[in-house]
Specification:
This protein is mainly β. Helices cover 11% and strands 48% of the residues. The protein contains three helices and 17 strands. The strands form three sheets. Strands 3, 5, 6, 8, 9, 10, 11, 12, 14 and 17 form a ten-stranded antiparallel beta sheet that branches. The radius of gyration is 18 Å and the shape is globular.
Length: 225
């Protein structure tokens, strides 16, 4: 599969070019268009139990779509739900932890599973819940806003707001905590952060859905009694 990303970073579109009879797994609702002859099959990827865990714990769709190109090959375009960028990772017998909602598509050599990224506290909307992608192949991720990539050295620690975390290499040390005490957490505009300790790769997004909703909801018209 070849991947081209257009219109980045604000309104990215992923163009997936498939070889003869090649298959690709795509998150439900991400498909924009496809060439003639591509077949689609909807399935619970990894079986019912894994799909249920992925849906309940990681916020992903219970069912995922597998697109299969005809003998002549084909093209499929995909896009994230929110305005932002797309990013391709080439995994080589390795694993990466992906924040809920950032998974878009992957080659069939990538296995998907759920993994808790820390204790889920009463700050439920910012609980660090991760999807584990492992294996060999291309993995397409999305972000709200642009993607900022970092490479942490051995023993290097970096603190990230959980709402801005997209993905990080499995094996990176991490610890989820509140910002300061309860007063800071409630009144600073911040919630939970995660301390990441290298070595490894980290992908961040420049915008946060939690911060956006915190701004948007008070602006909505109030229904009169």
């Amino acid at each position: 599969m070849e991947v081209e990303i257009l219109y980045r970073p604000s309104y990215s579109l992923g163009v997936l070019r498939l070889g003869p009879n090649e298959e690709v797994r795509v998150e439900g609702g991400a498909m924009v268009s496809m060439s003639q002859g591509i077949a689609i099959q909807t399935k619970a990827a990894g079986g019912i139990l894994k799909s249920l865990a992925r849906s309940l714990l990681a916020g992903e769709s219970f069912f995922q779509n597998v697109y299969r190109a005809p003998a002549s090959g084909g093209e499929l375009t995909v896009a994230p739900t929110l305005p932002g960028d797309l990013f391709v990772l080439d995994l080589e017998d390795e694993a990466i932890l992906v924040q809920s909602g950032s998974y878009v598509a992957s080659e069939m050599g990538i296995a998907l599973d759920t993994k808790w990224g820390g204790a889920k506290t009463f700050f439920a909307s910012e609980g660090l819940i991760m999807l584990r992608a492992s294996g060999t192949g291309k993995l397409l991720l999305s972000s709200f806003g642009a993607i900022h990539e970092m490479n942490l050295g051995a023993g290097e620690t970096y603190t990230v707001d959980t709402g801005h975390l997209v993905a990080f290499t499995e094996g990176i040390g991490f610890k989820v905590r509140r910002v300061g005490g309860l007063k800071s957490t409630f009144f600073s505009g911040e919630g939970l952060v995660v301390d990441l300790t290298g070595p490894g790769r980290v992908l961040l997004q420049t915008r946060s859905t939690d911060a956006f909703l915190a701004w948007l909801i008070p602006q909505l018209p109030k229904r009169s009694e």
